[in-house]
Amino acid sequence: MAKLQPGKVAARWTSVLSSKNDEEVVFEITSDDSAFRLFVDDQLWMDRFSNQEARVVYCRVPVKAGQKRTLRFEFAQENEGGGVSLTTVERQKSDLDELAASVKSADAIVFIGGISPSLEGEEMPVHVPGFNKGDRTSIALPRVQTEALKALQATGKPVIFVMLTGSALAIQWEDDHLPAIVNAWYGGQDAGTALADVLFGDYNPSGRLPVTFYASDNDLPPYEDYSMKERTYRYFTGKPLYPFGHGLSYTDFSYSDLRVPATAVAGDSVNVSVSVTNTGSRPGEEVVQLYISLSNRQVPVPLRSLQGVQRIKLEPGESRKVDFTLAPEQFSAIDALMQRCVEPGKINVGIGGQQPSEATLKAGKAVQQELVLTGKKWIVR
Prior knowledge:
The chain is mainly beta. The protein has 3 domains: 9-89, Jelly Rolls (Sandwich); 96-203, 3-Layer(aba) Sandwich (Rossmann fold); 253-379, Sandwich (Immunoglobulin-like). Helix content is 11%, strand content 40%. The chain has helices at residues 96-102, 143-153, 172-177, 191-199, 232-235, 358-362, and strands at residues 9-18, 23-32, 35-40, 43-48, 55-63, 68-77, 83-89, 109-114, 127-128, 131-132, 135-136, 159-164, 180-183, 253-259, 263-265, 270-278, 284-294, 305-314, 319-326, 333-334, 340-342, 345-352, 366-374, 378-379. The chain has a 5-stranded mixed sheet. A hairpin with a 2-residue loop joins strand 9 (127-128) and strand 10. Helix 1 crosses helix 2 (143-153). The longest helix is centred in the middle third of the chain and has 11 residues, at 143-153.
């Protein structure tokens, strides 16, 4: 038997297609760096043998009741790591009225949706609305899911949206109309158990978003634009749907007694502290986040930057002092000469369970204070 060489493979698959009814069979062909072609009754039905880019394509083969049609599928690949698959798919138009009727006896509805790793990734054979080869061309939740959620919400029953995703999704309607949204990311084999613990209140969640969730595609520049302008919490000047660092709990926390020195010498460390209180009725964990904002700089700098995080657990009514020590380089930025340095000037120090904002400051969920750095410019070595 001849040994197959890595990356140099060709194969032929044959079968017989038959049906008890007159119908049209839809085939999905997924190719990753492989060439392929499909013959039906020895007639060339689909030909993608000339190039081997990643793709997903569909083809329809009509078959009458009792008829037998021969299929021959051929593929070849020259590169290692390629592959191809041929499967039948059944697509049905969603009946939203039937969906709503099916839950009429439920006390509450848990809708699990979002996207999946089969849609977003690196150089994937995906060409569907909102996705191109694994890249996101839209951050919107697939429209059919929003329409399904609207039908379920119209039943008058509480709807919990469990969102699976590996990146930010725009869910403005869901945020406006649904009482509960759980971002579960892509869970492992125990994700169902963890989700049940959260939904039934056996676990008090304390997760925080590691990315900014925007309200719509209009909030972002084209994805071919690689500049940082209007991207991430550090440079986005609009109002996000959910800011970086956002997350809710079954209890509440308040912040007070922020202690920041009025002045410090550029190049020195700075000690900061704040008091955090669990004002709710359940034990919970809080993620205390410290942000700084530089001002009066000659070159562009981030709007704010996260410079400290501590996770603490508090019983109901319990307060705790949380201390941070900021190293000199945490106040630094790149100057006009492209050197990292700490310059004298005003710095805003804010601490909260998420980014300090007008709303969180007013609600006591964050506090902020100004620090003035004095002395000479300090170069980070």
